[in-house]
Write a structure and sequence with these properties.
Blueprint: H1 20-27, H2 33-44, E1 52-55, H3 60-70, E2 80-83, H4 84-93, H5 101-109, H6 115-137, H7 141-153, H8 155-160, H9 163-178, E3 185-186, H10 187-195, H11 206-219, H12 231-240, E4 243-244, E5 251-255, H13 264-274, E6 279-282, H14 283-288, E7 299-303, H15 306-316, E8 323-325, H16 332-343, E9 347-350, H17 356-368, E10 371-373, H18 378-386, E11 391-392, H19 406-413, E12 415-416, H20 423-434
Parallel strand pairs: 3-4, 7-8, 7-9, 9-10
Antiparallel strand pairs: 1-2, 5-6, 5-8, 11-12
């Protein structure tokens, strides 16, 4: 039984004039689904509904459906070709759909968004979503550049989804970025204050990933040379913008560092230096009270092993020049201290073990900070081996980025030289520096 608004089965309203029953018989079945899908795809891409669409390996049912639609048997063969102009003409001439093929497909499946139009609308929506963040970043070039890269990369969409869902998170990100750098605040405390959630900036959370990316850009740590996605790298990046993770467990060992008596940490350092004692500084202290080289201490010596610091304190006491220990791979506290010293003009001079692990540590540090070798060249290695202070070298060889001759010399000799074995040479240098 037909409804009152459709006495002859034709649609009323936007699809007025469409004979729905006949349209569904001709194009609405499973055997013509492929044809409707092709037409929708062309509409979405903004292409004209002209030319032939072809279906490989058509079934008997699909061939029969096209024959019923066009009123003639398709050409023989395994593939099935349909001219879209012919379908459009049939629909108009028969008055099944007087407005043609495009209108018929939308009657069957609903409106089709033209992709160019949809893309433009989506771009406008992302403009709105990014506006708060772009406004905060605009005054600072490093952040403005980062924000541009973030949008171009599509990372926000991958992490946050469509614009509607991304908007509140990017607004929170704008609030975070707007308060960087912080003044030595715990990361969780900062997140609770700014985001209303102490865990909002945790590793693995979308907002945390985006905010950490901003922190790296702000601190100049987003280059390939400085990239470190591990826990220490994240801790270093947060600390570089004044936010602290594991602020008391991340430490650095040093001796001879001058103290700025204008800060609590500086006064403690001054007392330790005057007493000739090494100091262990926490990440919290380094961020809140940055250590600055005073008294013309333009050179800071670096070593890999704590035994060098202990021996220097024993031998030189209060006269020991600034000496910092990386304790193997340098952690966030070490890097924060060294970056602070470099910003104030200090020159870093590094020594490590002459073994493959030591070379890897030195290479990694060199990619992050510019240092000069301290008794750490091929010539120094040969001298130490000749003095009979070496052991057997094992492991996978690696080139030394600062000295092309060092790795071949080590491979040729097959000997390792640990820092403890050349303490007298290192301490002699420090003594001369103290004088």
């Amino acid at each position: 039984m037909r409804g009152q608004g459709e006495p002859d089965g034709r649609a009323s309203g936007p699809g007025a004039g469409v004979d729905r029953e006949r349209l569904h018989r001709l194009l609405g079945g499973e055997d013509t689904r492929w044809l409707v899908d092709r037409v929708r795809s062309r509409i979405a891409r903004g292409r004209a509904l002209t030319g032939t669409v072809t279906l490989a390996r058509a079934t008997d049912g699909q061939r029969l459906a096209v024959q019923r639609l066009l009123g003639r048997r398709p050409a023989p063969g395994r593939s099935l070709g349909v001219r879209l102009e012919a379908v459009d003409a049939v629909l108009r001439r028969s008055e099944v759909c007087p407005r043609g093929l495009a209108a018929a497909v939308e009657e069957l499946r609903g409106p089709v968004a033209v992709r160019a139009d949809a893309a433009a609308a989506e771009a406008r929506e992302w403009d709105r979503v990014f506006a708060p963040l772009e406004g905060v970043c605009a005054p600072r070039k490093e952040l403005a550049d980062w924000c541009g890269r973030l949008r171009a990369s599509g990372l926000a969409r991958r992490l946050l989804g469509e614009p509607a869902g991304a908007f509140p998170e990017l607004r929170r990100l704008a609030a975070v970025v707007g308060q960087l750098p912080a003044a030595g605040e715990g990361l969780a405390v900062f997140a609770a204050r700014v985001c209303g959630d102490a865990h909002a900036l945790d590793h693995g959370r979308p907002l945390g990933t985006l905010a950490l990316s901003a922190a790296r850009a702000l601190a100049g740590l987003d280059s390939a040379a400085n990239a470190d996605s591990g826990a220490e790298g994240r801790r270093e990046a947060w600390a570089a913008v004044g936010l602290l993770q594991d602020e008391l467990s991340a430490t650095v060992l040093a001796t001879g560092l001058p103290g700025d008596t204008g800060t609590a940490t500086g006064r403690a350092l001054a007392e330790m230096r005057n007493a000739g004692q090494p100091a262990v500084l926490t990440l919290r202290q380094l961020v809140r009270d940055p250590v600055r080289p005073l008294d013309g201490a333009e050179s800071v010596h670096l070593c890999e092993n704590p035994a060098v610091v202990a021996a220097a304190a024993d031998r030189l006491g209060p006269a020991c020049p600034p000496l910092v220990c990386t304790r193997g791979q340098p952690g966030a506290a070490v890097l924060v201290l060294l970056r602070s010293l470099c910003r104030d003009g200090a020159m870093l001079r590094y020594h490590g073990d002459f073994d493959w692990g030591g070379i890897r540590i030195a290479n990694a540090l060199l990619r992050r900070l510019n240092w000069h070798p301290w008794r750490y060249s091929a010539a120094d290695y040969r001298s130490a081996v000749g003095a009979g202070v070496s052991g057997e070298l094992s492991g996978e060889p690696v080139a030394a980025d600062w000295d092309a001759e060092l790795a071949p010399a080590m491979s040729g000799a097959g000997r390792r030289v640990e820092e403890e074995a050349v303490l007298d040479v290192l301490l002699a240098d420090l003594t001369q520096r103290a004088d």
